[in-house]
Write a structure and sequence with these properties.
Helix content is 32%, strand content 21%. It has 114 residues and is an alpha+beta fold.
């Protein structure tokens, strides 16, 4: 299996380590492993993260992956033309309800057509 390379130009991994609780660190690693698995992208099968495109956002394509769906923790990412996945942000359980507002307020993290 060829890995799908992740790029973390914005320090999302560091932010996640700081804000995630100890019990969510394992879920976060599982989510990253699933996102890196190229076979999952080929088959479009993401049982843990349920990777899907965020609707209601114009001009950029943002995808959301669950770290822990019940507690509301999410990762936002974008596909790059260079075949990399770019980590954009990690959202707390409180932030996930206002996804479009969070994206608009942090629009410097989301690039048009990488």
């Amino acid at each position: 299996m060829t890995p799908k390379p992740l790029k973390d130009e914005l320090g999302v991994l560091n932010k996640a380590y700081k804000i995630l609780t100890e019990d969510l660190h394992c879920d976060f690693l599982k989510a990253l492993a699933e996102l890196e698995d190229n076979e999952n992208h080929r088959k479009k099968n993401f049982p843990h993260t349920q990777l899907h495109k965020v609707s209601g956002i114009k001009n950029v394509s943002v995808y959301r992956a669950y770290i822990n769906k019940i507690q509301g923790w999410r990762i936002h990412l974008q596909y790059g033309k260079d075949n990399f996945l770019y980590l954009c942000d990690v959202l707390t359980g409180e932030e996930h309800d206002d996804t479009t507002e969070v994206i608009m307020s942090r629009k410097n993290r989301y690039k048009k057509k990488r």
